[in-house]
Amino acid sequence: MTRLLLATAVFACLLGAAPVSLEAQGPDSTAMNGKMDDHMMGPWKEMNDFHRLLAATWHPASEKGYMIPLRARAKELKSAADAWAASKAPEMVPSCASEGVRRMVDKVAHESKAIVAMLDAQVDDTWLMAQFKRLHTSFEAAEGQCGGNGDQSR
């Protein structure tokens, strides 16, 4: 009987701690990243690679002011933006190869580089978020013209 009470008490403690453990993971949890996959796929692999990183950093920052994911992954974000800018647009969607999309993709790469420079200069979160918003807006413009969702609410 004592064992049963002890096991029940331990189980109840574990159940009570589970939400705290999940919350401790922060807004950049695997669950959030998983929910992003269903709406972000466009015709351009490198665009999708960049978008996954952007989503993992943008949503915590814009929804909760949580900048740690961006600070931790800014160089990775820049590398993905550079890879996108250096890649060839998919032929199946001619609009992806337009001059307007190419300009926006180059702008995304430039703005990603600026974020890394700002972090190196240790700017505060207000300035960093302003630059991050510009990056996000540029991404949405490129994605929207290239057959992606381009949903401004994200």
Task: Describe the model.
- With 154 residues, the protein is mostly helical.
- It has one domain (28-145).
- It is built from six helices and no strands.
- The protein has helices at residues 2-24, 30-36, 45-64, 68-86, 99-120, 125-145.
- The longest helix has 23 residues, at 2-24.
- Mean pLDDT is 79; it is low at 4-36 and 150-154.
Distance between the termini: 54 Å
Q: How many domains comprise the coordinates?
A: 1
Principal-axes geometry comes out as elongated
Query: What order do the helices and strands follow?
Result: HHHHHH
Helix content bin? over 70%
Estimate the strand proportion.
Answer: under 5%
Structural class of the secondary structure composition? mainly alpha
Helix segment count?
6
Low-confidence stretches: 4-36, 150-154
Sheet of most strands: none
Element layout with pairings:
Elements: H1 2-24, H2 30-36, H3 45-64, H4 68-86, H5 99-120, H6 125-145
Helix pairs in contact: 3-4, 3-6, 4-5, 5-6
Task: Report a brief summary of the structure.
This protein has about 150 residues and is an all-alpha fold.
Notable traits:
154 residues; mainly alpha; 6 helices
